[in-house]
Design brief:
globular, 4-stranded antiparallel β-sheet, 38% strand, alpha+beta, single chain
Length: 116
């Protein structure tokens, strides 16, 4: 069965400020969803990423340039990912539709990957 990455994109400019209690409830929704995927044998891995844009390495004039990235002015981050198994893109998208991330204003990028 093919494997897919669900990249969780979030616009930093939108979304209400949540209380600690609300954040805990949201976190529990994500955990419950991941546990359901694990119980179905679909979950291959997941991690939450930090809220910074990270770094980008590029070859430049025979050297490696390291910059903030992907764009210093970015307003959207990839906040995390889920790696899942699905029969095809259609099924992977149906699975992604059930992820709580969409409920909270995020978007999900679905990409197939190959294990090396």
């Amino acid at each position: 069965m093919p494997d897919f990455m669900l990249f969780l994109h979030q616009d930093l400019r939108t979304g209400p400020i949540r209380s600690p209690e609300e954040m805990l409830a949201v976190t529990r929704e994500y955990i419950a969803w991941a546990e359901r995927m694990r119980a179905e044998g679909r979950l291959k891995g997941t991690e939450r990423l930090s809220n910074d844009p990270g770094k980008v390495l590029r070859p430049k004039g025979g050297r490696i340039a390291v910059t903030d990235g992907p764009y210093a002015e970015t307003k959207e981050i990839i906040g995390g990912y889920f790696a899942i198994s699905a029969a095809d893109y259609d099924e992977a998208c149906r699975i992604a539709e059930s992820c709580p991330h969409l409920k909270y204003g995020g978007r999900i990028e679905v990409r197939q990957f190959y294990t090396m």
